[in-house]
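Module 6 notes. Inverse folding takes a fixed backbone as the condition and produces residue identities as the prediction. Think of it as a translation problem where the source language is geometry and the target language is the twenty amino acids. Below is one complete input and output pair. Work through it position by position during the lab.
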């Protein structure tokens, strides 16, 4: 499907510089541009590609100052990154959605599956499961007894939804993710460990996206909850009885220990780790590989391990680099003091 630069500009509330009738039918990175494609420029590091790109149309920010002539037609917008995201969503929505139940899918008689769903080959839908309208469940995905899946969801291949878990509307769960496995609960005894049964469930609210091989463990009692609009990257671990606030985002390999409560609109960098039974307030930014072992009030930024405010961390980093020299100086002083004593 083709669109003109004018049609695109109207959709993203932008203005055209160049040929308003220029047509595009695909997307391309600005450094890999090709005729008939649309690209975008939001990172200043890539500005030099703008003058040589072969893309027909480029989305740019309104405040971009050109240093030389540009061959491509430009569409100036308030936020190029946000605008290309809207275009990609439009493009994705135009793809035909899979429908129908594959004859090799296994669906329990008591399950309720909406007529316009897609159930792939070797998918398993257990007893009393409810699957909402327009949901797509890809091959080899398992939805166990008494679970519910909302409308417009996508469960990619090899997803596992354990019994009694609840998935909201428009949720996307990528391959290998496990929702509702037992929380890590064991009581030590003289012979080893007694397993503590995990009798709760997991609740995933609307518009959540969960990355590949991410695990959200079921609660000991009650629910582990991922609230509306949260986005979890690949290989994230959410332990039992954790609560993740609305619109919070987590990069890969974040780990949150049991019963920790995370507020809304938080941002966690890759490999950040959180102790159990703490509270992280709204709009907290946690840097990559940060170790958070106590509660945070919110509306703050922390980095380092243990976590601290950025200025303190950078001052400490300067001292840390000097520790070998400081240690050597201390040893020299100790020897001089010993000589003075003798």
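Target side of the pair, the amino acids:
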């Amino acid at each position: 499907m083709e669109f003109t630069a004018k049609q695109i500009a109207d959709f993203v509330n932008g203005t055209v510089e160049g040929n308003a009738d220029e047509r595009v039918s695909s997307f391309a990175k600005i450094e890999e541009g090709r005729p008939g494609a649309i690209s975008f420029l939001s990172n200043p590091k890539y500005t030099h590609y703008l003058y040589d790109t072969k893309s027909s149309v480029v989305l740019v920010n309104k405040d971009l100052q050109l240093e030389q002539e540009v061959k491509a037609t430009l569409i100036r917008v308030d936020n190029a990154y946000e605008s290309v995201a809207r275009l990609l969503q439009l493009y994705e929505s135009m793809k035909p959605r899979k429908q129908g139940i594959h004859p090799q899918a296994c669906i329990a008689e008591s399950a309720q599956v909406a007529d316009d769903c897609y159930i792939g080959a070797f998918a398993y839908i257990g007893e009393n499961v409810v699957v909402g309208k327009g949901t797509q469940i890809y091959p080899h995905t398992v939805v166990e007894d008494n679970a519910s899946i909302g409308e417009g969801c996508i469960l990619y291949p090899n997803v596992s939804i354990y019994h009694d878990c609840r998935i909201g509307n428009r949720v996307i769960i990528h391959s290998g993710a496990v929702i509702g496995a037992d929380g890590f609960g064991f009581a030590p005894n003289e012979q080893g460990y007694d397993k503590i049964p995990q009798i709760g469930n997991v609740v995933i609210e609307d518009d959540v996206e969960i990355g590949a091989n991410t695990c959200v463990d079921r609660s000991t009692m009650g629910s582990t909850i991922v609230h509306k609009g949260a986005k979890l990257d690949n290989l994230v671990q959410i332990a039992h009885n954790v609560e993740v606030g609305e619109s919070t985002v987590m990069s890969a390999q974040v780990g949150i220990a049991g019963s920790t409560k995370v507020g809304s609109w938080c941002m966690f960098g890759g490999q950040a780790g959180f102790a159990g039974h703490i509270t992280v307030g709204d709009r907290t930014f946690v840097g990559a590989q940060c170790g958070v072992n106590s509660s945070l009030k919110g509306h703050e930024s922390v980095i380092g391990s243990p976590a601290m405010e950025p200025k303190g961390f950078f001052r400490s980093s300067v001292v840390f680099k000097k520790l070998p020299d400081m240690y050597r100086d201390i040893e020299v002083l100790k020897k001089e003091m010993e000589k003075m004593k003798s």
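Reference fact for the lab report: The chain has a mean pLDDT of 96.
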